[in-house]
């Protein structure tokens, strides 16, 4: 190709990219706001939202709602991506990541926590009882046990079996949308690895926002790997003046773009929740176009008015919505590719 043609081609590609970004900005406002309301990632958010709703419907605090809500996913042994029953790392250790944030800007987080079935409650205690935001590994476990959490084996037989299968090939390739029942009807064989997270955002009757995010991270990940989910600003961010956001998918790309903070800041600038999520995934595409085609990342956002929206890289991302009208709504997220 001669240099003039190359130049024209590059210019056209550049113009197309600019259009994609300006379209992202132009997406109109999302759904009509209501409160109280709770939203969370993936189909499994429905059951979690119901537990959160029990708190919200009686004028409870959004912080209590999100903790109670995500604990349902953490306790669900059929879910290989969150809490007890989560797939282990490549060495067979189940290591959990979680964080929580309230309407006052308080936040707490644990990462690479082993043997504790409800990392979200440990994260809340880090927030409430320590001068710190984040505890990791052995120190997080010690703190949990000092605070009365039971030490247990989180590697259940089905997850151990999947890990043993995985060890045969040790193939390190993410499966998109593993958590979405319409895509996967049973637990995956162990020669594949997967990831997914529950991120939950709630607005209570008093108009206050909180969020929680909890995961076992990427299945068969490297020992010590921590994703976006326990990182305040990446996997979760709340600003009670504006709104909240959470993410799911390949955490490395979310950390690189400080995704949830970005979504909230875009909402502060006037973007609707959906438009903010769309711009955040567009940034991932812009930074790593080739990687972005291969992976899933989804953002979910709720603003101060109770309006919500989402956007993902790929099709297949779903989220659950629960308010006074409907407790089991599942919405298919819009997507770039
Ligand atoms: N974001 C999580 C992580 O990277 C996993 C996921 O949501 O799929 O650890």
TrEMBL record:
Record's signal peptide: 1-26
CDD domains per the UniProt record, alphabetical: Glycosylasparaginase
Keywords recorded for this protein, A-Z: Signal
Keyword Membrane: no
Species annotation: Sphingobacterium griseoflavum
Pfam families in the cross-refs: Asparaginase_2 (PF01112)
Xref: NCBIfam families: TAT_signal_seq (TIGR01409)
Protein name: Asparaginase
Superkingdom of source: Bacteria
